[in-house]
Amino acid sequence: MSTPPRHARGRHHKPPPEFVTRCDRALRGALEERNRRRLVVVGAGTASVGLLVVTTLVILSATAPGESPAPEVPAGSAARPAQRAAPVPATGGDAADLPDAVAFLRRKDPQETVVKHVRQVSRSGAFLRVYTDLKEGDENSRPAISLCEWTAQYLRDLGAAEPIVFVHARENDNGHVVLANKQSAADDCAVGDTR
Q1: From residue 47, how far is each of 40, 41, 42, 50, 55 by CA, in Å?
Q2: Where residue 30 falls among pLDDT bands split at 50, 70, 90?
């Protein structure tokens, strides 16, 4: 005679009471809900960590604010000193849109007779502002006009059909006075008499 399998139930086995069946269903439902929540939490956590890693990599790979690529030095030119008298950061708005503005100006002025006056280049909406250490009385001066023309060329090279540029004097009681500006393709960078 063979032994009946262990899982086989005898004919005297009674089904569990309805209360036990309901408790079992409720427990299974709660465990399934808990597992679904756990999966959602784990998925959201994984996505957050992934986003954090990508953001960190983007930030680390981006050029630091105020840092610009080294300017090209023409062959045969004298070496420049390692330190500059004043930093020339490209800031404001989205600095990533104009990382080469200062480098472009330095290429236009390799001896830095004009660029040495630049203190900051910043984006203000659709136009660029060049802040200098020039005085309020330097309206339409050669350095102001040159900076205006060079910055307009920089914007044209980036694809601006009508570049808008403002070159400002150092701050005084009147704020940052405009020394030169270009507001349309026909504009020659000279400002009218403001006195």
Answers
A1: 11, 10, 9, 5, 12
A2: low
CA distance 144 to 61: 34
C-alpha to C-alpha distance for 77 and 97, rounded to whole angstroms: 30
The phi and psi torsions of 119 (rounded to 5 degrees) equal -110, -30
Spatial separation of the C-alpha atoms in residues 71 and 49, rounded to whole Å: 38
Q: Who wins on pLDDT, 1 or 73?
A: 1
Model's pTM, two decimal places?
0.52
For the chain, give the DSSP string: -PPPPTT---TT--PPPHHHHHHHHHHHHHHHHHHHHHHHHHHHHHHHHHHHHHHHHHHHHSPPTT--PPPP--TTPPPPPSS-SS---EESS-GGG-TTHHHHHHHH-TT-TTGGGEEEEEEETTEEEEEES--GGGTT-HHHHHHHHHHHHHHHHTT-SS--EEEEPPPBTTBS-EEEEE-STT--SPPPP--
> Please, which residues have CB within 8 angstroms of residue 190's CB and are 6 or more apart in sequence?
140, 145, 180
Tokens standing for residue 130: 């060049």
Of 21-25, 52-56, 110-114, 183-187, the poorest mean pLDDT is in 21-25
